[in-house]
Structures are given as C-alpha cells and as structure tokens.
Amino acid sequence: MSRECSAIERFLARNEKQVLLLSFLLALTARVAVVFWLRNFLAPIGSEYEGIAINLLDGKGYSLAPFFGIGYFQRTSWAAPTYPFLLAFAFSLGGVYSHYSFLIVELAQVLLASATCLVIYGIASHLLGRVVGLVALLMVAVYPDFVYMPTQHRPITLIVFLLCCDVLCLLVLEKKPSTKWALITGIVTGLLTLTEPVTLAFVVLAFGWFLFVSTAAIGVKIKIVLSIAAVGFAIILPWTVRNYVVHGKLILVKSTFGYQLWSGNNPDATGTLRLQIPSNGDPGVHDSSRGIPADSETRLWKEKQRMPLIASKMPVALRSTLETLPEVRADGVLFDIAIKYILQNRRRFLELTVARIYYFWWFDPTNPLARSFIYRLPWIIVFPLSVAGMFLSQRQWKDLSLVYFLVIALTLPYIITVIEARFRMPIEPFVMVFAAYTVVTFCGFLLSVFRSLRGAALPNSF
Predict the structure, then answer these.
(1) Pairwise CA distance, residues 344 & 338, whole Å
(2) In terms of C-beta density within 10 A (0-12 exposed, 13-18 middle, 19 or more buried), how is residue 134 classed?
(3) pTM for the structure as a whole
C-alpha cells in the first residue's frame, strides 16, 4: 500500500462516521433528484406485483391471472411474496394505484438503495481495506443504474440490499462466530429467499464457504450453519406450507421455472425474454444510440414494453391447453417441453447458452435501452476495471472466495434459462468492489512513479 493510501486509511479510521454520513447524503440526494426528474410515480407501468397487491386489498387473496395465457385467475405463486405484500402496504397508506402510493414506494427504495452504499463499504473495507471501501461506496453511489433503480416498481432494490446485507453478515460471522450473528444472518437469508429465490443457490455455496474458510472449531462451524439454516427455513416455511395447501405440490417460493426454461429454450428462443430486434427496426429505437435526453427514458422504456415477447410465438394449441390448467401444472408442462427441446437440440442449447453468457455480462440486443451509448458507457468502463481487479487481487482469493461464489451462483441459473438486464444487477455492487480495487491500485502505482521521478529529478536542481 502506498504512503498516500495509508494516510487515507488512517484518515478514514479517525473520521469514518463523518465520511459515511456525507457519502450516504450524496447517494440519497442523487436518487431523490432522479425520482422527481423522471416522475415515474405519476405513470406507473403495471406488473404482476401490483396486480397481486391490488387483489390482496380487494380480499381476493394472493391471486393473479398469470401472464401469457398460462393458467387462469387463481391463487398464485407466480411472484415471490415479499414485494407484493410491501406494495399492498403502500397502497393501504396512499390509495390503491395512486401517485402517492408509488411515491412512497420510490422514496422507500431510495432509502434502501442509499443504505446499500454503506453496506458495500462494509464489505469492501472488510475484504480489501477502507480506501477500496470508500471508492466502491462512491462508485455505487453515483453509478447510473443504481441511481435509476429506485424509480422502478420492482423488487430489485430490495434484492440488492438484502443480498449485500447477507454477504456482510457472513463476512462478520466468519471473523467473529456468534449465535447473535448467526440469528441475524438467518433472518436476512430467509427474507432474501422470500424476495428472490434464485439467491438460494448462493446460500448453499455460502454454507460450504463458511465451513471451509472459518478458523473456528468444526463443532462451532456446524452449529453456526445449522442455526442460519434453521432460522432461514423458519421464515420461508409458512409460505411453502401455503403453496402446498394452494397447489397440492411442494413449491418452495414461486412457480415460474418451467416458463423461464421454456422461454430460453424453444424454436424461437433468443436467449432473452424478447424476440430479436430486426436489423431494420424502428428508427426511433436506433436514433436513441445518440444519447438519452431528459424526455426519452419513458419512450425507451415503452419501446421495451412493446417489444414482442418469446411467449407471443407460443403455439396456439399449447396456449389453449395452458389456459385450462392450474398454474403449477401449466408451468410443469412448459418445463417438460423445454427439457425435451434441449435434449433434442443440444447444439442449439449450447449456442443459446453462449449467447446468454454474452448478453448477461455485456448487453442484451433485444433491449432498446442497450442501443443508447449513454446507457452502455458506465458498464463499458466498470466491467474491464472489475476484470482487472479480479486478476490484481488473485493473491487474496481465499478472502474474496465468497464473492466469487456469489457471482457463480447468480449467473448459472440465468445462462440456462433467459436473461434480462435487471438479472445482473444484484451482482453489480460486488463488481464495483473489484473495479474499486483496480482504481486504488492504479492510483497507488501512478503516485509511486511520480514520487520516483520527482526523487530522481531533485539532485539536478542543486
């Protein structure tokens, strides 16, 4: 570590609370400004989450007519429960589907997103030092996707916050094993799974990581893992029991895997939820590559909503069959069809998998937003920096292994099903940690070179 970095580290150690407060206010201000600039709360775009929330308040229970002709209006497990219940709570405060309700949602998400910056500081400083932590915090605070994220009425802000909290809890637990932190980690893990069940793959790997990395006695490690699992399971269990009562089948959290797998593996599949944009597509979409002016965010979002989905190519006979089936059975039919297609078209499955990896880690060509250079630019800068950071930090692989496991666990489910830009967002704060490490290392290198040159030049001045 350079002298300058050591000095900043000491400064942060002395003034950590003040620096974190100022950084939090920076993140908060940026996000509040975007909320009132875009004003998405005045023209919300409906989704399954709002539909379920409205049905809850109307006394119809956790119910929905699943999209794309799958099933019919019925009690559902199409969406994980945490976010719809939170939306229902907001609707009960500000009115069903009112501007005030969505403003409440967005401002609550602003607070969560701003707090996420502080959690990332804790993770990065724990792994790579306070200087890297500060740079990572600032990157997350001003990164356009994260500033924009709270304006979307989807659970992504909550998912990112809970995932970051889960990682920080695990890191603290690895250094200081205790029943208290095991209980806290279990609560966060349970809530995270009820918000986005895909993260359960990471939880399983995290248990293995803890057993391997922790220096505590084996008995203590097993007790900690079992405590986390027991608390997390206790939080998930009521919803799983509800699903069994409703569907007569064991559904841990939600029932959309068959649909996702079919969407990514069928004769019309592109690797995403949408059909490919024609090379001679809408000129308005292609014009957006010049930038995103203040009034075009809504236009591009609406253009994305108008893009035909893979489900629009579903055979009529299949759709007619699905419309008559209970939700879980319909999802099972799609799962069977997808598996059959994969087994009969192994080469095409491999091609789609490679495409999904590329789309996941670069850009989705079926998303009109990706046509904008301004939309692409931040990731074009951050992603290479993060890759460089992974190489530069390879000597600390053991300390960073939990983050590696997270990246793997949250990539694999999507590269065999479908990808969307938002599916990568839970990983992006951790990508920022590696990018921050590159920035700090490079700045330290430049400062050392500057010092060397200045020292070599000094004798010539006498």
Answers:
(1) 10
(2) buried
(3) 0.91
